[in-house]
Amino acid sequence: MKRAIALVDCNNFYVSCERVFQPKLEGKPVVVLSNNDGCVVSRSQEVKDLGVTMAAPWYQMKALAKRHGIVAFSSNYALYADLSSRVMSLLSQFSPQQEVYSIDESFLDLSGMPGSHAEYGQLMRRTIRQCVGIPVCVGIAPSKTLAKLANHVAKKNPQFNSVCDFNSMSEDELDALLASIEVGEVWGVGRRTAPKLQEIGIHSVLDLKRSPPGRLRARFSVVFERIVSELNGVACLELDDVPHDKQQIICSRSFGMLTSSLADLEQAAIAYTTRAVEKLRQQHSIASALHIYVRTNPHRTQDAQHQQGILVPLDEPDDDTRAFCKAALHGLRQIYRPEHAYQKVGVMLADIVPASERPRTLFDDDAARERSKSLMNALDHINRRMGSGTLRLLGEGANQSWAMRRESSSRRYTTEWEDLFICPS
DNA sequence: TCTGGGGTCCTAGGACCC
DNA sequence: TCTGGGGTCCTAGGACCC
């Protein structure tokens, strides 16, 4: 029996989320910007057609935007995350095996399902469009890497009507199609490797499919052996239907303005550490080290640059925000140089293990451990109930002058009562 | 003036051990 | 002339993804 893996991918996801609540933007050029309104991270088809690339700096395209009436939104992750979970939950009803791969993509195992898989894909499309309002494309193939390509084909070629099933094609038909796609479109072949492949005569996906895996492995890495197998229809990547615990948890952000103030950096460090440790507790893990780093703006070449990080080990693996904040401040004071204007501070939790594997030591203070646990539980409970950041450490600061800019955010239509969408009648 | 954030995997090289 | 060899662990950095 041939495996059938479907990849369902939302079209221009963030832009599509905004359009759900502002349908008048259908057919208009729309972008969604990254934090600080820095880069373009989601583009409508109209904007792609204008030649705007992914991650283009927004300030550089203000003139183009004005000329074509491009509508720009700041990122509204509360909205995107909520619509994503609705899409994923609907999709879960179409297969017993689902891997939620990212905020806007999901793999589904359709192996052994009777009937036309392409028609089944159309049903998924209609359902999601009708229930959530988001347009999606579906690619179906015997491996994940091919399913990704099938999805690409479905998006680019209107004659497929947004669903492309490689399994329903003959070998020759498929190879002809693969010969027409550039090798850089393959999942795992990035902008660095694509030119190197072209140097050795591999231009199309078909070229890559027919390459001797051993040669690629020697030149690049084992990853390529796997990619070639996957292109030949041999599934090497299993469907991961249980989400793994994160092995590292990062929280970092650029400031709304450059700052040389240690007080600002300390506030940000505490705020980001607090967020990271919340995520750590959410997955019921503990960590025993914190890496903190600072960075000046690398684009300002006229400024003296400083980029440094430091790993601060904890006395013992922990999940108490206070222990990590102490470590973060300790690390920050060692790497901070007052003569620089910093753009960013970030923290990363490392050496993460499940809380159930906490080692027992001779010096365990069980009472203190219990107090810490109760405090963190109360903190998380209140913040979940009353909104993130309701209760926080004083060190985060009340007036966060370094906080990021978000000048044109839409409302949190689906997750906040005061932002609820009321249909104009 | 203004250039994102959060993750994973792989490799190379050094330290260390026997 | 000629300076062991193999294994493991850790870290930094690159590449990639969304």
List its traits:
425 residues, alpha+beta, four-stranded antiparallel beta sheet, 14 helices, 37% helix, DNA-binding
- Summarize the biggest pleated sheet: 5 strands, mixed
- Overall structural class, as computed from helix and strand content, comes to alpha+beta
Strand content: 15-25%
Number of contiguous helices = 14
Strand element count: 12
Q: Major sheet: order of its strands?
A: 5-6-1-7-8
Low-pLDDT segments: none
The SSE string, one letter per element, is EHEEHHEHEEHEHEHHHHHEHEEHEH
Computed Rg: 24 Å
Report the average pLDDT across residues: 92
Q: Quote the distance from N terminus to C terminus.
A: 54 Å
- Estimated helix fraction: 25-40%
Large-scale geometry: globular
SSE topology:
Elements: E1 5-10, H1 13-21, E2 30-33, E3 40-43, H2 45-49, H3 62-68, E4 71-73, H4 77-91, E5 98-102, E6 105-109, H5 117-131, E7 136-141, H6 144-156, E8 163-165, H7 171-179, H8 193-199, H9 205-209, H10 213-219, H11 222-231, E9 249-259, H12 262-282, E10 285-296, E11 307-318, H13 321-335, E12 342-354, H14 366-386
Parallel strand pairs: 2-4, 7-8
Antiparallel strand pairs: 1-6, 1-7, 2-3, 5-6, 9-12, 10-11, 10-12
Helix pairs in contact: 10-11, 12-13
This protein binds a DNA duplex (18 and 18 nucleotides) through residues 33-39, 41, 55-60, 62, 75, 101-105, 187-193, 221-223, 246-254, 257, 297-299, 311, 346, 348, 404-405.
